[in-house]
Amino acid sequence: MNNENKNTGALAIALVLCLIVLVILVICVYEKFTSSTPTVTPDDPDDKQYVTISNLTGMNLADAKAMLDDAEIIYEVVHTDSELYNKVLNVEYTGKTEAENLLIELGTTVKLHANEIDPSKIIYLTFDDGPTAGNTFEILDTLDQYGAKASFFVLGNRVIQYADRIEATIERGHIVACHSYSHDLDRDSDGFIYTSTDAFLHELEMYENALRGAGITVSNKILRFPGGTCTNGYLSKEDSLEYVTAARNAGYKVYDWTALTNDADNSYRLDGESDKDYFLRSLKESLTASSEKGLPLIVLMHDKLTTNECLADILEYLVSEGYVFDTIDHCPEYTFAEN
Question: Which of 80, 131, 213, 252 is a Cys-bridge partner for 223, taking CB atoms 3.0 to 4.6 Å apart?
Answer without folding.
Answer: 252
